[in-house]
Amino acid sequence: MPTVQDPADPPIPIRSHPVLARRAALRFVLLIGVVSAFSDMTHEGARSITSPFLGSLGASGLVVSVVAGGGELLGYGLRWFAGRAADRTGRYWAIAFFGYTLQMAVVPLLAVSGNWPVAAALIVTERVGRAIRIPTRDAMTAHAAHRLGGGWAFGVREALDAGGAMVGPLVVSLVLWLHGSDRSAFAWLGIPAALTLLSLVFTWRQFPNPADLESEAPAPPTDGAPRPPAFWLYLAAMGLIAVGYADWPLIALHFSEERMVGSTVAPVLYAVAMAAEAVAALVLGKAFDRVGLRSVLVVTVLTAAYAPLVFLGSLPLAVIGILAWGLGMAAQESIIKAVLTTIVPADRRASAFGLFDTGFGVAWFAGSILLGVLYDTSLVALAVISALVQLAALPLLVLTRRRLAAAGNG
Asked: Which of 181, 217, 277, 389 is 20 to 30 A distant from 382 in Cα terms?
């Protein structure tokens, strides 16, 4: 008598056939990566000109700073709430759709904003939309990690993500060169914004339940169980790295004030950093799947050198520093998140990603203030403190690795 499959069960071929399952997982990662590429093209393109746009509308330097810093703080601070909502309701796609739609809708609306308060509200709203959709996107990507390896799954997606982040500002530069208008640039960014939503719909229709990509059936819910000590150790380590990591605007300001490059070359250097991030994400992803957390240790040592190279070196050394900075950015969005898939259970990943991002973002915000003060005081102090704070994460990473090894996840 043939076995009747329960309609509630995932499709049998996906979990029982390793080759088909791996192909499906790779296809999902590529599709969600395309969504990320179009979305990054949109919001990174917009962010490359939002500060001067606010200034052209009459916003003061203080307003520009508060909008940028406050938007980033909200963009990280709300992620825990979004992730927790996703895990509690199980409506990952619905929350992702809401976040993506909110974020993509406000960018072209900047083209018709008539004053700086309206523009500022739209800029902050874009960050809120991003905060809502990122934990669910990461949690769904993690379902493919069991088939592809966590490093490769997050690495491939981040490579596509970084590609979009590289193209977006270049497209904006081209539009500005052709039309000379920030508003025209925001309007043109409506095209990748629409493509983001269209590709999101296509991905959802192809994979309505990404949990089917897991190699095993979902474990019983663990809601209410405390997070393992390794999670908090890891978050503390990454918080130190965040404190020591400079925002690109500070690096660009340094290049401008030191007259190392012209204003037209700075976006090209950012594109170089994004290209390095895209390539590094793939390499780091493979490395993580082979050696695990040791890859994060190595990257931490290498990227700690970015600040001395960028802020104390000549232009050739600064370019090397930019590559190191791009390497670190790749790690933050690929292998650093892949580690979390080995620490937390599947049914709590969205809230774990959200909590991790919130803690990381608060540390980054505090570090931005610290490095900004040091920049006005002493470049040597900035470079030394940035490097030392990042290297201080190494003992915590070693302890995390030992905890995971003891739990059988190292």
From this structure: 277
Task: Supply φ then ψ for residue 382, to 5 degrees.
Answer: -60, -50
Which DSSP helix (H) or strand (E) runs through 194? Answer: helix 190-206
Compute how many other C-beta atoms are within 10 angstroms of the C-beta atom of residue 369. Answer: 11
pLDDT one-digit tens code per residue, 323-333:
999 999 989 88
> Rounded to an integer, what distance in angstroms lies between the CA atom of residue 283 and that of residue 277?
10
Spell out the long-range contacts of 365-373 with Cβ–Cβ below 8 A and sequence spacing 24 or more: 365/69, 365/72, 365/73, 365/76, 366/243, 367/242, 367/243, 367/244, 367/245, 367/246, 368/69, 368/246, 368/247, 368/250, 370/243, 371/244, 371/246, 371/250, 372/250
Residues 222, 345: contact at Cβ < 8 Å?
yes
Average pLDDT over residues 188-192: 96
d(CA 299, CA 322): 14
Count of other CB atoms within 10 angstroms of residue 170? 17
Domains contained in the chain, CATH given: 16-206+227-406 (1.20.1250.20)
Q: What angle do CA 187, 198, 160 make, to 5 degrees?
A: 85
Residue 19 has pLDDT above 90, yes or no: no
Task: Please give the pLDDT value at position 226.
Answer: 52
User: What confidence tens digit (pLDDT) does each residue in 121-163 have?
Assistant: 999 999 999 999 999 999 999 888 878 888 899 999 999 998 9
Residue where the block lists tokens 């596509």:
160
CB 82 within 8 A of CB 132: yes
According to DSSP, residue 189 is labeled: T
**C-beta of residue 66 within 8 angstroms of C-beta of residue 83:** no
Distance CA 14, CA 251 (A): 46
- Residue ranges of alpha helices (H) inside 348-392 are 349-377, 379-391
Pick from 8-12, 236-240, 402-406: least confident: 8-12
Q: State percent of the chain over pLDDT 70.
A: 90
Contact by Cβ (8 Å): 96, 140: yes
> 174 and 27 in contact (C-beta within 8 Å)?
no
